[in-house]
Amino acid sequence: MTSVRIKLCGVRRPEDAILCAEAGADEVGVIFAAHSRRRVTIEEARRIRAALPAQVPLVGVFQDAPLEEALRIAREVGLAALQFHGKLPEPAGDLPLYAAVQVNGRDLARTSSLAGFRRVLLDGPSGGSGVPFAWSVARSVRGSVPEVFVAGGLTAENVAEAIREADPHGVDVASGIEGPDGFKDRDRVRAFVRAARGAR
Known about the structure:
CATH topology: TIM Barrel
Order of helices and strands: EHEHEHEEEEHEHEH
Distance between the termini: 7 Å
Largest sheet: 8 strands, parallel, barrel
Number of domains: 1
CATH architecture: Alpha-Beta Barrel
Structural class: alpha/beta
Strand content: 15-25%
Strand order of the largest sheet: 1-2-3-4-5-7-8-9
Radius of gyration: 15 Å
Number of strands: 9
Helix content: 25-40%
Number of helices: 6
């Protein structure tokens, strides 16, 4: 069985990006959504990209953003993929596109119009809230899209259970690896990666 991929998201500082990479993250995410407390500027994202090892992809996260705008930012920053929440664009271009889908209980907010997206990220009822959903729902989506990731309320304490229940291709975490100051916490980052790796 292949190892689950780990995306550590909501990085706002170069030193946190380095921490995530050294801990073993497969991907690092930066958020451009206007209303997110983890939002970064293009210049901040550039510094984060420059701090990361070349082999660690940087994923840009967008909310209700036009594809053309996201692609422009991707070129300026050096993003490897684009993740969309809210209104999804019509897939186009050369970069991998990821679609975030909210799950309320066992109900998917969107199950159609996902053709052309490389990955579906199943998130809690409110993106970025740190609220989990019924992880077993992911099994109903797996097979209909190339990749299924789970997010929402994941921590070092529950990520192994989420992986066992969801059988996802990967997991995505932001708040679950942060300290009280809102930045990435070294111990929580390392514990999360260790727990996710040990789940399979």
